[in-house]
UniProtKB/TrEMBL annotation:
Belongs to the ATP-dependent AMP-binding enzyme family. It comes from the Bacteria. It comes from Marmoricola endophyticus. One of its GO terms (biological process) is fatty acid metabolic process. This is O-succinylbenzoate--CoA ligase. Transmembrane segments: none annotated.
Amino acid sequence: MLAAHQDGQDVALPTSGTTGAAGEVVRTTASWWSSFAAYADLSGVRPGDRVWVPGPLASTMNLFAAVHARATGARLCDAPASRAVLTPALLERHLDELRPGTRVVVAGDALSPALSARAAAVGVETAHYYGAAELSFVACGRDAASLRAFPGAEVAVVDGVVWVRSAYVARSGPALRRRDDWASVGDLGTYDGTTLSVTGRPEAITTAGATVVLSEVEAALAGRATCFAVPWDGLGAILGAAVPPEDDAAVRASAGALPPAWRPRLWLCVDEPPLTVAGKIDRAALTRRWQAAHPGHGATGRV
């Protein structure tokens, strides 16, 4: 990336397809370099800082952080560090390892105000941003409830879809949509002119004719469950929930108050939900785990 920038060449970066399609994102290096000053203010990364980026560099959020550190004169290192870049799942998993005074950039998924507050309680400051491999930075804040347009970016929501206009957008990418100077990857949200609320491209299932958005069920269960789907003959899919053993009884009880279609019918007890290599919740792994524990159920089974 640094050599490409010196030579004025475009770069092609792989994307894992979290917005719906895998492939290559082609961008100018200037589209990243032009955001460095604003990102330095967000992250607090300065020359000489030690920056921990534990996720794989195949993830563009991690690669950007590594390139920014190198270009800024900061050093990549293992924990502990003064700065870190984590997904929300990795922040929760490693929160006890972070020293008071650490500033963490959190991206790759929505950072809940509750997790941000937990971090603040132990002296860890969070800086959250919403973006995509094709869009780079769109909005930033302390958490997902306080997102404002990223410096240098204009935000709009049209027919429920989030659009951005900035110098940070890639030339092309598998999920990239364009309307004149505006770009989108199809994420849904609302915008009141100040605060952007992003619901993403919701993972939804159809169960017995009803469409259920997994993130909405998780929110209704106070974030104590991770939902997944198991294909089921005659129903399309059945909703499952993975919960820590200590929360199992309470979550099952609270699920009884949900609308019938929202109630998980399949349950797993897991100490921690599995993560993808990019540090995001791996719902497909939960589906496989349930199927392995219940052979013969699903495509030809009954509840």
